[in-house]
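RECORD TYPE: inverse folding
INPUT: structure tokens
STRUCTURE:
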């Protein structure tokens, strides 16, 4: 099974996109099953075929370890990694082309603790890609855009599997706003101009230099705007993912 792992900042839209993408795949005659790896998930808009909450639940971790929500998230992240073999057992019995994996919202726990790497390794480095999900609230300003690009790059480096750069909730921005974000995604000179025009002070030059460096070391990939509301862009995500899986190639990265 090919795995698409939705990773991203809290509230970016990973869970909604997992559901929307499965629906889109089914509507288009493709096969996909789902796995929830968020022990703190409350209600899900899809019925997970495999669910970490059958082994680890955030509420139980809080009670059992006498922890508050943040401490429990840390322990839950480690328990997630420790339970991956058990979680994968039912997954291996599923008969599908694609497994869509929804991850916890605490990006720093998943991406920077060892547990996230263990999870991705157990899922399989050769047949997994990460769909990094960011949202307009993170990318509306030029400096916010660069911060999101840095997060993308650190996830890409951390996991060492091909990584798609997805802008969720494209339906909540105006056409002009979306066009501007996509221009930054595409052109560092446009980003440079807009950073220089912005109110940001000391961070101005640094932002551009960081973005240039990310492009130069091939650590940045152009954004794919999507909406889980109107399903726009989901065909692009599928096309990119399929291209990577079929070609075995990495993303079409641009080096400036
Ligand atoms: N308009 C719009 N809203 C969206 C879209 N995707 C997600 N949302 C909303 O954004 C909020 C967060 O979405 P989730 O899918 O729960 O985000 P998440 O990344 O899974 O969140 P955590 O797991 O808590 O980190 C919800 O209120 C969703 O309805 C979208 O494409 N368009
Ligand atoms: Mg979620």
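DESIGNED SEQUENCE:
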């Amino acid at each position: 099974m090919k795995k698409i792992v939705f990773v991203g900042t809290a509230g970016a839209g990973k869970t909604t996109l997992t559901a929307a993408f499965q629906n889109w795949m089914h509507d288009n005659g493709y096969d996909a099953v789902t796995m929830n790896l968020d022990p703190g998930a409350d209600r899900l808009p899809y019925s997970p075929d495999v669910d970490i909450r059958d082994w680890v639940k955030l509420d139980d971790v809080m009670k059992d370890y006498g922890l508050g929500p943040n401490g429990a998230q840390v322990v839950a992240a480690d328990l997630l990694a420790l339970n991956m073999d058990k979680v994968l057992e039912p997954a291996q019995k599923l008969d599908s082309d694609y497994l869509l994996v929804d991850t916890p919202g605490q990006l720093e726990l998943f991406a920077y603790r060892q547990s996230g790497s263990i999870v991705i390794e157990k899922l399989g480095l050769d047949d997994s890609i990460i769909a990094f999900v960011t949202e307009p609230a993170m990318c509306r300003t030029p400096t916010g855009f660069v911060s999101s690009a840095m997060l993308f790059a650190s996830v890409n480096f951390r996991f060492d599997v091909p990584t798609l750069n997805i802008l969720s909730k494209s339906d909540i921005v105006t056409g002009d706003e979306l066009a501007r974000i996509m221009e930054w995604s595409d052109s560092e000179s446009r980003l440079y101009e807009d950073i220089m025009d912005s109110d940001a002070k000391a961070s101005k030059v640094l932002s551009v230099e960081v973005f240039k460096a990310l492009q130069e070391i091939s650590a940045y990939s152009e954004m794919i705007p999507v909406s889980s509301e109107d399903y726009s862009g989901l065909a692009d995500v599928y096309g990119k993912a399929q291209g990577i899986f079929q070609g075995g190639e990495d993303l079409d990265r641009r080096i400036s």
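NOTES: The first strand starts at residue 2 and ends at 8.
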